[in-house]
Amino acid sequence: MTQLELVIPLRRRALGADDGHLHPGLVPWRAAVCASTDACLLLSEDSRIVAVAPVAREMLDLPVEVESTRPRFLHCGLSFLDFTAGAQPLQDAELARLAPVQSLQTDALERSLIRIDRRGVHRTFDVVASPLHSPPRLDAIGALAFFTPVGPG
Prior knowledge:
Blueprint: H1 27-35, E1 40-44, E2 49-52, H2 54-60, H3 66-69, E3 79-81, H4 92-95, H5 99-106, E4 110-118, E5 121-132, E6 142-150
Antiparallel strand pairs: 1-2, 1-6, 3-4, 4-5, 5-6
């Protein structure tokens, strides 16, 4: 009896925002997100924002040019806060556990609460993020995240 060796491919390095590359598998997702009436956004495999639904752009107070500049989710201008009374900025280890980022790392559906500072007002969102795949690749090519406000807005 021969033994098979399990080989897990390493994630390949994603191309940067300046080259304009978008995985072909994300093109239909981008169109769906741009036309969506749900508060959602689409991230590429390197966590860059490639599409934002208009309602999400308004709710998160993201600039109109966010899709063309393609910043990384954690560097898009949102101030992520902890849930203490002092509302301190999240540390790197805590940022890595936010659903959109975690979904890209685990290739699994992820859910988390996110608290952000929006012009001095703290808002909380329930976020569900799903990895997106394009066979035959085994790792995620991107993630789709939905934002639901929690509490008064």
